[in-house]
Amino acid sequence: MNFFKRAWLNLIAKKGRTILLILVTSAILLFVLAGLLIRNAADAATSNAKKSVGATLTLSANRDAAFKSMRKSSRSDSTSKPTKPSLSLTPVKLADVKQIASLSNVKNYNLTASTSVNASSFDAISTSTSSSVSADQGGPGGSDSKMTSSQGDIAVTGVSTTALTTNFTSGGYKITKGRGIKASDANSNNIIVESELAKQESLSVGDTVTVKSVSGSKSYKLKIVGIYKAPSTSGSTQMGPGATDPSNTVYSSYTLANTIKGTKYKNTADSVTFNVSDPAKVNSVKKAGTKLISTSKYSLSANDASYQSVKASMTNIKSFADKIVWLVAIAGTIILALIIILMIRERRYEIGVLLSLGESRAKIIAQFFVEMFLVLIVAMGIAGAGGTFVGNKLGEQLVSQQTSSTATTVQSTSNGPSGQMGGGGQAPSGNAPSGSTGRGGASFMDSSTDKTELDVQVTPTNLAELGGFGLAIIFVSITLASVGILRLSPRKVLID
Amino acid sequence: MLELKNIGYWYDIQDNSLFEDVNLKFETGQSYAIVGQSGSGKTTLLSLISGLDKPKAGEIILDGQSLSHIGLTKYRQKHVSIVFQSYNLLTYMSPLNNLLTAMAVTKSSHEGDKNYARGMLQKLGLTDEQMTKNVQRLSGGQQQRVAIARTMCCDAKLVVADEPTGNLDEDNTQEVIQLFQKIAHEQDRCVIIVTHEPDVAAVCDHSYRLAHHEFALEK
Ligand SMILES: Nc1ncnc2c1ncn2[C@@H]1O[C@H](COP(=O)(O)OP(=O)(O)O)[C@@H](O)[C@H]1O
Ligand SMILES: [Mg+2]
């Protein structure tokens, strides 16, 4: 009848007390487990968020420098009769792009070149909004004297591939028929059209349409390889002045947009978005990239604000979770220690009997430890089962919290200075609902629209951690309670 | 086998000592009674003999070794077995398991021998059913017999009992006292019984009376 058997007999004989101990221990462990799960979830959410938020670098014409030189030239011209100052933006050269793309940590890039044309073999969707164009809409194309400052009714957004274009990755745009624009579409006249336009004009994949340059001098035969659907929420409210219906945007390879804009634009792009594989490295990539370009003409801006804010909010959640784990562990230890101390006081008589038989105090303490260990094992099972439920609830809670906090970031930063005009050329601001107001801003949408799945499951690792915490708690509790046993005089218990 | 040398004990101040300079000797194969009025200090002396407390003065020698040298826990484990007025059994166990626990704790030569423990309980009049149910379901007399059986299952040469018949009726008292005589004589142990009942003292081989802070040999 060693202390293992005594522990067992005691638990069996005092069922009521044993059940209460199991329940209290389960409750405490459940709290600890919840804390551990929150911490795990925060870890998972952090890496998820980092992955989904990503960070980008945008290479585009240096607007600040361009404005400065424009002001300078208009001042020197002050004697002559006031002419509209022209803003000269230099399109990005592909050679520069390739150099930056070869930097480490640059995952891929997407070129954007925008222009507009007039529909020829079909009609653009007309909206009540006037499609007449205000003069200051001219981008680099506007400064081109050969081009008129007016805008065609069809916006051509040239990209490297729609798979990397923000509207399609996270703006809600979907390819419904055919395929999107691919890198292999370079130097082709392949386009994809919006479903509303396709419906109105009975266009389908494989059809060919004709468009004319805005000046009317050239016409192009374009082949429809896919039909996309823009989100219906892209209402007229989001359109800037002079915007045409978003359905009038066709996507093509950037080469087509360049061709339409003129030979001068060969091997250029309005802007380039580089996806950085590790958001934490975005600034070092930016530094390296800036060295490769002429900063008077171009600017390379980093868009990692969302990554930073997600990182900050995740760090908050994580430290909160850490605190909860420790708080609960300490509170649990105190509660359990008090209960065990009370229980042991109640068992002074039994301890006295064992001491009078000559049992060592260490073995008496060991008996209590074994009892609590057995209680712990059962309680772990209960807490583990309950933890699955708690974990699911926590996961939902955390996801909504994370999503809303990121969404706030999107709102506050997309209008900020980092929100660049994506395409310099044909005022793309109006044509696409939100994406083109700024590549930077748009890329923030990633995290809010890609609902991050938080898998808050109880894993064996959690249970092992929980077991560790449980053992530590009962160890500390029994050690505290044992002070009483070590000082207990059997004489006092048994005789007085 | 056991020798008390100049033992003195007091609770608060030395001037109020219960006894001073006590010199007593106890031998195996003999039974001793310690009698005296209530409050005279019998239990206190027994707690010193049983290693539950230390004397304030003097020393207790077991077979030439002082108790402080042996260590009280080891002394209680190996050399002394105590029977209390209130039985002091482990209440969450059956009589059988109480015996097995004591045998394991004291590392008795019969450790783990269930049949030996069973036989001992049988000898003391417990049925098989009684020895496997919780001890608290037994009568006082039966519980005290379990406590005595526990002592008999252990190898300790010294058996001390504090008012072992205090809670028992006449018949049970006689039986229990006879059991202690058997333990002393048949198992060659030293039995020291504290009692205030003259009948009990009369059965023992020797009897000390504690009065006026001194022990006097009555027989
Ligand atoms: N723990 C104690 N603290 C102080 N005095 C005590 C304590 N235990 C017993 N006493 C006193 O010591 C005296 C002897 O007690 P005890 O040895 O129990 O006597 P007996 O067993 O002969 O009745 C009594 O007067 C009692 O009040
Ligand atoms: Mg007494």
Please provide a written account of the structure.
Chain A is of the alpha+beta class and 496 residues long. Helix content of chain A is 51%, strand content 15%. Chain A has 15 helices and twelve strands. Chain A has helices at residues 3-13, 15-53, 63-76, 94-101, 140-143, 166-169, 195-201, 254-261, 282-291, 305-346, 348-357, 361-414, 439-449, 460-487, 490-494; strands spanning 55-61, 92-93, 106-119, 154-159, 174-178, 190-194, 208-213, 219-229, 249-253, 268-269, 271-276, 298-303. In chain A, β7 and β8 form a beta hairpin. With 219 residues, chain B is an alpha/beta fold. Chain B is built from nine helices and ten strands. Chain B has helices spanning 42-49, 67-70, 72-78, 95-105, 114-123, 128-132, 140-153, 170-186, 198-203; strands at 2-9, 19-26, 31-36, 57-62, 65-66, 80-83, 158-162, 190-194, 206-211, 214-217. Chain B has a six-stranded mixed beta sheet with strand order 6-7-8-3-9-10, with helices on both faces. A four-stranded antiparallel beta sheet of chain B has the order 2-1-4-5. In chain B, α4 runs parallel beside α7 (140-153) and α7 packs parallel to α8 (170-186). The model of chain B has no long low-confidence stretch (mean pLDDT 92). At the A-B interface, α1, α11 and α15 of A face α3 and α4 of B. The structure holds adenosine-5'-diphosphate and magnesium ion (MG). Adenosine-5'-diphosphate binds next to α1 of chain B. Chain B: It comes from Lapidilactobacillus mulanensis.
